[in-house]
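ENTRY TYPE: paired fold submission
RECORD: A
CONTENT: sequence, then structure tokens
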Amino acid sequence: MRVLVVEDSPKTASLLKRGLEEEGYAVDVAASGKDAVWMAAEYPNDAIVLDVGLPDLDGFEVCRQIREGGTWSPILMLTALDAVHDRVRGLDVGADDYLTKPFAFTELTARLRALIRRGAAERPAVLAAGDLTLDPSTRVVRRGDIAIDLTAKEFSLLEFFLRHPGEVLTRMRLIEHVWDFAYDGGSNVVDVYVKYLREKIDRPFGANSIRTVRGAGYRLDAG
């Protein structure tokens, strides 16, 4: 198993490299964000250990660029930042797990093993269907170059559609994932919000991306 360690501290990088090699991993080290982006694209890695505090690009930007480049190796982010918004930001730009310094090496290796078992499934940071895009980290929705203002619930509904392109989603499934199991309103709330979405993301642009599947629910066209 090959692991890319992205760490600008020579001492920390050396400790991680030696410890992971003792666990049987082949380890490459990148000391800067730019090197990390290049190495992630050039060499196949089973996992990437990515420090946030880098001298050029921070780890969030490195993660975003790695994902935009089409590399889906599982990423474990390391940082001294422990605020909730930093953890959320890391996950939103495409990281798979987050470990705050100082950490136990045994926990790091356990998390790596779990990530490697999961594999390199495609998890784009920005969701898209044709020229319609949604960025969960910035909460920006665009049709082409035009930004679209959505309410929080409209955003959540569109995000669920974009995570399941081409699938027929029943009204009940949409309620369970976008509202919650305890929601006791009528199922027509989905129809109402789909109408709101169409008025914002489709009709002004002459598009028809959210289609009604008679007797079943709705489907977002992937193209």
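RECORD: B
CONTENT: sequence, then structure tokens
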Amino acid sequence: MVARPTWQGHLKLSLVTCPVALYTATTSSNDVRFHLINPDTNNRIRMVPTDPDTGPVERSDLVRGYEVSKDEYVLFDDADFDQVKLESTRTISIDKFVDEAEIDRLYWDAPHYVVPEKGAGVEAFAVIRDAMKKQGKVALGCLVLRGKERQVAIEVRDKGLVAYTLRAHDEVREAADYFDDIPAVKADADMVEIAARIIAQKEADFDPADFKDRYDAALRELIKVKTKGGKGLVAAPEPEDTNVVDLMAALKKSLQGSAGSGGKAPVRKADTKKPTARKSAAKGKKAA
């Protein structure tokens, strides 16, 4: 079953325009989902919109309100929202091009596939896509998505484009508010060297298929057990904090364990060559 588009409109580069559709690139349809149940009746609970004075009301009759003061609201219906029509409501106008590395990873948000609508606009889409690929840049534009104007970063992928919504500056908290209180501790150089060798032994290529949601699997197993009338229980003990006195011993033991598990040879202390940044590693940041 083909997914429904999240947004439909036009992609515009200067005077070149083509109709496109956006599709959410991720899915949560495989997540384990629960409903609220009354354990006395086994009935699923219904969330009924209720007016405190008149009782239950139809959701379709409701409007939205912005609270301007305590218990005072400015009301908005669909016609009011239709009056707020920016260009970005139906058009992604590419404003500028930047290097991917210029966008802090904290700002990357949700990815969407950008697909040309069938018809004469496909050629214009191909021109924009191939020109972006030739220049090796990420395009920046804006669009209104789910009632909010979002900046998007657009990059070429295969025959299409991927648009990542970007968080606004006021949505990202200042790291200093959290990191400034971290005590200034000078790590022991020998311990750092051993930890670096452990990291080198565990170096690997990123493959998202390697990750398995063990919590989800445990829930499914518990569901299976309870379906059969059992009382399954899955538990894992909390790891203990590493005592400072035992830190060197723990590092040495970890190094031996990593070497015995088929890891790579440890890095010699004299080796000061820096690893080369890989494009594939940079790409992985945005799916988070």
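NOTES ON RECORD B: Confidence is low (pLDDT under 50) at residues 265-288. The CA atoms of residues 107 and 169 lie 8 Å apart.
STATUS: closed
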